[in-house]
Amino acid sequence: MPQPSTEEEERAETGLFGPSAVTAYLEQVVEQLRDERGGAPSSSIPALAEADPERFGVVIATADGHVYEAGSTRDEFSLQSISKAFTYALALHDLGAEAVHAKMDVEPSGDAYNEISLQPGSGRPANPMINAGAIASTWLVPDSDRDLRRDRIREAYSRCAGRDLAISPEVLAQEHDAGDRNRALGYLLASAGIIEGDPTQALEDYFAQCSVLVTCRDLALMGATLANAGTNPLTGEEVFDAGTVSRVLSVMSSCGMYDDAGEWMVRVGLPAKSGVGGGIIAVLPGELAVATFSPALDRHGNSVRGVLACERLSQDLDLHFTHTARVARSTVRASYPIDQSPSLVRRNADAEAVLAEHGTDAVVVELQGDLLFTGTETAIRTVRDVAYDASYVVVDLRRVDVIADYAMPMLARTRQELHAAGRTVVVVAGNPDFGRSFRGDPPLEVFPSRAAAIKWVEDALLEEHGGPECTPSRVKPVESELFSRLDPADARALRVRTVERSWAAGENILRAGQNFAGIHLIVTGDVSMSLRTPSGERVELQVLGPGMSFGELALGTGDKQHATLSAVTDVTARVLSPQTLAELEQEDPGLGLRLWKALARDGFERADQQWRDAAVHASASDW
Ligand SMILES: NC(=O)CC[C@H](N)C(=O)O
């Protein structure tokens, strides 16, 4: 079955941009280590002893399924002991950790992989990565009614690799012929009651799993399945549950490289498993897997070039588990007072004055990435710090990918603590689950956009620090912004020429592109002004409230509405219709001229305000 290719591979074949920089790096590593000629292929069976020691491949497969390879990455070789990690996973998956732990411990033995040894006292093998534990793991995998044990094992490996892997009959026959030491282990396990009954079939199935043929690329995808918590990142199929994978990786960390495991964790720092066929997989949980292949082995039975390549990648790419803690510092994307990114609501002069004075009393904290413990701790510390000086905190979760279950109560408690101290936390979240993150009493305000959240906070600040004139629910036309620029007599003369119109919440009032439909003075309710992007996305520009006007800008844009106006709430307005305006020019040209001057001043000020808002919005990133 052909090996599945990824999009990068297909694109790289087109040659448009050439191989990725990651591939180029791996090619450089292969070339620089190719001259390392220490060690020799395993002499345990002819098929291994005859392997070409010059073959050398390195692959990185990311936990989201991107594969980068260099060197001999498509040549097949036998899996050998790397199989142990995956058979152990299958036994855990089938029987559970307790049943498996009754048959083998999880302690590093410090012995060679084929040591004839069981733990004193318990009589269990020290761990599943040495042959004694591995044979016990194989025995634990039950035949299913559909498949023999060895088919179940091979099929599980194939699901991790993303393609159908085969057992080499030649290697299997040679493992069988050379298997007396393993048979001694099998009967020792039976004598200790670890294997119950005849160990023969388990031994044959163990030989079979060692004889499964893989390529370096297959190994990397098998490792990436472990890095991706048990789900194959290319096929999306869950092969093992996350708890099983966590246990397997833990045991690989302490035992996967046999009596070189301690040195390995210091120099490479990744859970790994090697095999005398010349393969190694190393896994950075949640991020990637590295796979290497070169048949020449050191005295521990680990590939010489493979170990050097893993050390090199760990050091060059900072893969060591003690180096990957930086991600927490990137949890906080930005933090700024709301007056640096005011809402889209056009406020009257009184309201603007109050917000200018109190706008720093509310702060936005934008979070991103995964809120695991360190990310959550950083987020909590930041929210508490900003809340020290601010009464309102807007926590923007839209760029957060994951909030760990244990983080939810920590975030909820933080909100309660701030509430008890007179602070209010509101949340911006597209994911409804995230809205639960800060839940508690009083009920949490969750908004789909930051603009809506900031409007809510501004309204709260105006209610606290401004009078009713800041957030009027009703404004007479003669007190509107536009008419207040005129003499009272002119305002009254125009008021009698208006007609009342009303719209229900959600109703369209004016559409972009339609002809001028008159000057509208909002008496009650909120009106949203929006545009459609070329891709059809609706972008809200402003929210207008009582006392404000709309529709007149069409006069400056060729009599066509430049934006869509829709009722956010129920709306009533007084309208100077186009016909009324035409009659006014005939009947009282002086009043008409004074109206146009007031419009011009209002328009220029509004345009200036919009440019200033646009500059602020551009700096405060997208809405
Ligand atoms: N470390 C290894 O890869 C050893 C595998 C070999 N088939 C054995 O069982 O001894």
From TrEMBL:
Matching PROSITE patterns, A to Z?
CNMP_BINDING_3, STAS
GO MF entry, a single one: glutaminase activity
Reactions that this protein is recorded to catalyse: L-glutamine + H2O = L-glutamate + NH4(+)
Query: What does the record list as coiled-coil region(s)?
Result: none
Give the E.C. number(s). Answer: 3.5.1.2
Q: Which Gene3D superfamilies match?
A: DD-peptidase/beta-lactamase superfamily, Jelly Rolls, STAS domain
Q: How does it assemble?
A: Homotetramer.
* Family to which this protein belongs: Belongs to the glutaminase family.
The protein in question is named: Glutaminase
